[in-house]
Amino acid sequence: MTIRTALRARWAQLRAALKREDGLAATAITYPLLFVLVIAFIQLALWFLGNDVAQSAAVNAYNQSRAYQSNDAAGVQAGTEIVAANGELLNAPTVRVTRTAESVTVTVTGRPLSLIPGLNLPTISRSVTGPIERWVPR
């Protein structure tokens, strides 16, 4: 066997391997798309966790501020403690408590944690309204 026939045989093997491709091009396209989907799923989960933190802070602030002889400041403090206990799942949180003679409204707002720098997600806002505990003479 001459060198020329050996080179031709080797070249034929290489061409056959390149034609088969073994899915390398498909992998180069699929992996980045899969990565984007995983990041989007994690970002969505973080948004839902921020929702849960805002809701539990609003409920806790409502329960504290509706108590007999309580005030707005106690509700704000209770809501702020819940948000702080959950780390940075809710960025720039605000807790607002509004009391009237018969009801109390608590609103917790904030921005969810973002994995992608510069991505502005919708602001999360949760409100709870209900009656206050009060003594009513007969």
* Helix-strand topology string: HHHEEE
Measured by DSSP, the beta-strand proportion falls in 15-25%
- Structural class, judged by helices and strands? alpha+beta
- Average per-residue pLDDT, rounded, comes to 88
Q: Kindly, what is the distance between the CA atoms of the first and last residues, rounded to a whole number of angstroms?
A: 115 Å
Specify the number of helices.
3
Which of globular, elongated, flat, extended, rod-shaped describes the shape? rod-shaped
Low-pLDDT segments: none
Rg, nearest Å? 30 Å
Fraction of residues in H or I helices: 40-55%
Biggest sheet character: 3 strands, antiparallel
Return the domain count. Answer: 1
Please state how the strands of the largest beta sheet are arranged side by side.
Answer: 1-2-3
How many extended strands? 3
Task: Report on this structure.
There is one protein chain. With 138 residues, the chain is an alpha+beta fold. It has one domain (24-131). It has 3 helices and 3 strands; from the N terminus they run H-H-H-E-E-E. Helix 2 (24-65) packs antiparallel against helix 3 (72-85). The N and C termini lie far apart (115 Å). The relative contact order is 0.15. The model has no long low-confidence stretch (mean pLDDT 88).
